[in-house]
Structures are given as C-alpha cells and as structure tokens.
Amino acid sequence: MSDLVTQLEALTNAPSVENLWQLHCDKLAEIGFDRLIYGFTRYRSGGSLGDPQDWIILTNHGDDYMEGFIGQGLYYNAPMLDWALRNEGAASWAMIGQNGTLDDNAQKVVDFNKKHGVTAGYTVSFRSVSERTKGAMALTARAGLDQPATDALWAEKGREIIVMCNVVHLKLLTLPYAARPLTKRQREVLQWVGDGKTTADIALLLELTPATVEKHLRLAREALDVETTAQAVLKAAFYNQMFVLGDDNT
Fold this sequence. Notes:
single chain; 250 residues; alpha+beta; Beta-Lactamase; Arc Repressor Mutant, subunit A; 5-stranded antiparallel beta sheet; 50% helix; elongated
C-alpha cells in the first residue's frame, strides 16, 4: 500500500477535527511544509468573508503570528488570499509582487510575514459549492527552503499534496466543529425545531416544561450568536452540531 493511500485512509477515518488536522500537519511537515492555515466561510458576500467568529480556522502557527494575521486583520490585504478568492487550485507564492508594485497594505502583510519567517510556500484554493462559501489553505515551507527550492519540492510532491488537502477539506465539512459548542439538550431542542415541532410539542417529547424548552433555545441562540431560532438551526447544521453521536454533554 502506497504512502499516499495510507495517509488518505487515515484522513478519511479521522474521528474528529483535531485528529484530522494533526494527521495532516504531521504529514505535510514530513514533506517540507511545517506551518499551515486552513480557513473556510459559509458567509461570503461581495467583498466580505463574514464575521471571523463564524469561520472555521485551523492552524499550527504560533499565537503571535495568528494574532497579527487574523486578530489584527492583516489577512484582508494578503496577496495570496486575494488570489484564492478569485481562483481555484494551487499557486506558488512566487507570484507575489510579479504584476507590479504591491500597494501599501499588501506590503505590510508581506513585511509581517517576513518578520515571522513566512516567506516561501503555496496556497491551495478549494472549489466552492456556492457563491457564499470559500475555503483555502496556506502552506508555509520550513525554514531553510526559499521559494525556488519550494517550487522544486512542489514539482515532485504537489499533486499528492493537493489530493491530501482536498480530502482534508471535504472531511472537515462532515465533522462537528465546536468553535461554539452546544450542549446535548440544546442540540436536542434545535433538532426538534428543525423537524417542525412547536415549543409545546418539544416539551411533551422531552418531558420538560415549555419554559425550560425556551431557555434551552435561548441559550442555543446565544451560543451560536444569532437572533432567531431558525438561524440557530441553520448554523448548527452548517457546523455539523446536529445529531452528534456519542456526546453526553448536558
């Protein structure tokens, strides 16, 4: 069994986001890309990617880097993110600045990346299933690899890397993501709402009072940062927090 097939088998059988991401980071580090960022949004609209709190963000970069890149909003002017929003596939960071001088905001991102040793790599932009969704992954080459060396590495391993990244992306869309976790009871009441049940119906089914059902719905809305229960059902479904198996949280 080839090394690639072994890795794909492990990825497709990963039981959690954490396990999946660790498997991917470990394998790409072996190849030569030791720092990764994965980002996915379902709330893209025009030039906006939606509220960062609603994104799925996975990384093994340090906190200092992520605080600047995401926390301080530098991502918004990142040249390769701009490329990813307009394209699909994989692209070398050698293209940065090729089409003329970078504007001041983009140059600030490049300077920030240099300060943190993020100077050579590739960006993978995943195919979107709707106008509102977008996913991408930035792969930073390990220290000591410049962009020409990284391009040579990609020429040898790029197709395998793209396949692994695509599998990770698709698998992530099926796993519960708990940036805003719900309790078991909150999920239950949202599930029944999604099935068309009223508060009175749910109270009878779960042997609760209507006031208690309303409390769990309110807490679910607060956890998911939405205004209506319908929005809570939709967001919980987006993040695969509905009908979760083997979770005893109350």
